[in-house]
Design brief:
It is a single chain. By secondary structure, this protein is an alpha+beta fold. The chain has 2 domains: 1-36; 39-210, Umud Fragment, subunit A. Helix content is 20%, strand content 27%. The protein has helices at 3-36, 64-67, 183-186; strands spanning 38-42, 57-61, 75-78, 114-120, 125-129, 132-135, 138-139, 159-164, 169-173, 189-190, 194-203, 209-210. Strands 1, 2, 3, 4, 9, 10, 11 and 12 form an 8-stranded antiparallel β-sheet that branches. It has a 4-stranded antiparallel β-sheet with strand order 7-6-5-8, with no helix packed on it. A hairpin with a 2-residue loop joins strand 5 and strand 6. It is globular, with a radius of gyration of 23 Å.
């Protein structure tokens, strides 16, 4: 083989190796980003209607809650307490008084992921009337919720007795208050069980946006 042919073969081999390395690095970056920074999540149920529809896709920031505490209004993906995923669902870690929402989760987390909105942070006093949160004695402005509890006929629409959110825990509720299995029934969620906050929706195209 001539020197020119050998050079061409070496060049082709070098280009192939470079391509393989580029693909490997790109794949590694994509997997790393999904594992540690941003993860896509598909909405599995109607609990966040009308904000999020079934099948809609959101992006979840996995770093945000490691550098700051969640705030009221944040939409979070998290592991619920064990028992929340059971059938029938809902299992409180305590026996709250009649008319009070669950004030304590079970001791272990479930392996499934839920997505809900933060309605109470550590130290807040929470009760619920017709699906609307009464936080520290004042009705919370919640223009994003559905009307499924407006007539107070949905399951768990009213819990008039007040509970206090314990340190390091967050009270989660779906926006579709009459159709959401949430902290009302299985208690506030420890910060360590939170995966991240949903910050954007990317599918379907007509609902692309930032929260």
């Amino acid at each position: 083989m001539s020197k020119r042919g050998t050079s061409r073969s070496a060049s082709a081999g070098s280009s192939l190796l470079e391509l393989v390395l580029i693909v490997a690095v790109a794949l590694g970056l994509a997997l790393g980003i999904q594992a540690f920074i941003v993860k896509p999540y598909r909405i599995p149920s109607e609990s966040m209607v009308p904000t999020l529809e079934v099948g809609q896709r959101v992006l979840v920031n996995r770093l945000g809650t490691h550098f700051g505490d969640p705030k009221v209004g944040d939409i979070l993906v998290f592991h619920p307490p064990s028992g929340a995923e059971a059938s029938p669902p809902s299992q409180c870690g305590d026996h709250p008084p009649s008319g009070a929402p669950c004030d304590k989760p079970t001791a272990t987390k479930a392996s499934v992921n839920f997505i809900k909105r933060v309605v109470g942070v550590p130290g807040d006093r929470i009760s619920i009337r017709s699906g609307r949160v009464i936080r520290n004695g004042k009705p919370t402005r919640e223009p994003f919720i559905s009307s499924t509890c407006a007539d107070n006929t949905g399951a768990g629409c009213t819990f008039p007795k007040t509970i206090t959110i314990p340190p390091g825990h967050y009270f989660m509720m779906g926006d579709n208050r009459g159709e959401s299995d949430d902290s009302r029934f299985w208690g506030p969620v420890p910060k360590s069980w939170i995966i991240g906050n949903a910050f954007a929706t990317y599918w379907p195209p007509d609902r692309i946006g930032i929260f």
